[in-house]
């Protein structure tokens, strides 16, 4: 899929909302493989299961409850703080500073947020490693969602929007998981899919046969920083006093 975009798709946006994992940082960092292993180890220890049994539980709860943690809290009363502290104790050496991303975020007009099913501590650590932590007004995390209603639940989006006084029709949501964008679209946001199918992870391969974007996804890219850079440049050109009054800058992203 190749998509041609213009500033028209984003000129109404005053709030930019980013998922964290596999969105702000490149999916090929593969942080989730570390997190997956630690979730399996936590569950195996907590319930005296084999690792295979623990990973089967993890996958089942993810599918049925939106996150593994939501299932553990709902069904077993597991301490969310203990779980999150354990599973996010990972090596961030694979996350490189991203000055291009920082500059691209700076060029976007309006407010910026991180909206994640992970913990604030994890998001802060990753964003600091990328060098973009100070670009965001707030990080809305799984603690703010009280653990049991994560994305893609409508309640998660309603809470986020209400907490920060966001007008959904003037907001853009960036996420690697299309089902999260389905809810973002339902509340009125412009949606951007970070296409991570090249990673080969099951949650990304479920859409491998797509030849066109579904209605709830307005835009796609495989690389966030150049995508944002192009948006910022297009918006800046439109806003130049000496620039064209009607013709928007065009850019093509694959």
Labels describing this entry:
254 residues; alpha/beta; Rossmann fold; DNA polymerase, domain 1; 2 domains; 6-stranded parallel beta sheet; two-stranded antiparallel sheet; 8 strands; 43% helix; globular
Description:
- The structure is a single chain.
- It is built from ten helices and eight strands.
- It is of the alpha/beta class.
- The protein has two domains: 3-29 and 95-253, Rossmann fold (3-Layer(aba) Sandwich), CATH 3.40.50; 31-87, DNA polymerase, domain 1, CATH 1.10.150.
- The radius of gyration is 19 Å and the shape is globular.
Helix and strand arrangement:
Elements: E1 3-6, E2 15-18, H1 31-47, H2 51-65, H3 68-76, H4 80-87, H5 99-106, E3 111-115, H6 120-130, E4 138-140, H7 154-164, E5 171-175, H8 178-186, E6 190-194, H9 202-205, E7 219-221, H10 224-239, E8 250-253
Parallel strand pairs: 2-3, 2-5, 3-4, 5-6, 6-7
Antiparallel strand pairs: 1-8
Helix pairs in contact: 1-2, 2-3, 5-10
In short:
The chain has 254 residues and is an alpha/beta fold. The protein is built from ten helices and eight strands.
- At the fourth level of CATH, the homologous superfamily of the largest domain is HAD superfamily/HAD-like
Order of helices and strands: EEHHHHHEHEHEHEHEHE
CATH level 1 class label of the largest domain = Alpha Beta
Q: Could you give the distance between the termini?
A: 7 Å
Largest sheet: 6 strands, parallel
Q: Briefly note the structural class of the backbone.
A: alpha/beta
Read across the widest sheet, the strand sequence of neighbours is: 4-3-2-5-6-7
- What's the gyration radius in Å? 19 Å
Low-confidence stretches: 243-254
CATH architecture annotation of the largest domain:
3-Layer(aba) Sandwich
Percent in helix: 40-55%
């Amino acid at each position: 899929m190749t998509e041609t975009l213009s500033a028209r798709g984003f000129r109404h946006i005053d709030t930019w909302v980013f998922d964290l994992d596999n969105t702000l940082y490149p999916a090929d960092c593969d942080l989730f493989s570390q997190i997956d292993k630690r979730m399996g180890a936590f569950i195996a220890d907590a319930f005296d299961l084999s690792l295979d049994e623990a990973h089967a539980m993890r996958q089942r709860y993810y599918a049925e409850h939106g996150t593994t943690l939501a299932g553990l809290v709902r069904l077993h009363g597991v301490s969310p703080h203990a779980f999150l502290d354990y599973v996010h104790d990972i090596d961030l050496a694979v996350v490189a500073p991203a000055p291009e991303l920082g500059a691209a975020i700076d060029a976007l007009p309006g407010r910026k947020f991180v909206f994640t099913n992970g913990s604030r501590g994890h998001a802060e650590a990753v964003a600091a490693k990328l060098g973009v932590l100070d670009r965001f007004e707030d990080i809305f995390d799984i603690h703010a969602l009280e653990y049991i209603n994560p994305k893609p639940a409508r309640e998660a989006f309603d809470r986020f929007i209400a907490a920060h006084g966001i007008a959904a029709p003037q907001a853009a949501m960036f996420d690697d998981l299309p089902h999260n964008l389905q809810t973002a679209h339902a509340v009125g946001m412009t949606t951007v899919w970070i296409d991570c199918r090249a990673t080969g992870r099951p949650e990304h391969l479920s859409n491998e046969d797509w030849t066109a974007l579904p209605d709830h996804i307005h835009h796609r890219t495989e690389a966030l920083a150049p995508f944002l850079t192009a948006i910022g440049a297009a918006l800046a050109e439109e806003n130049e006093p000496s620039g064209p009054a009607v013709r928007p800058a065009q850019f093509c992203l694959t």
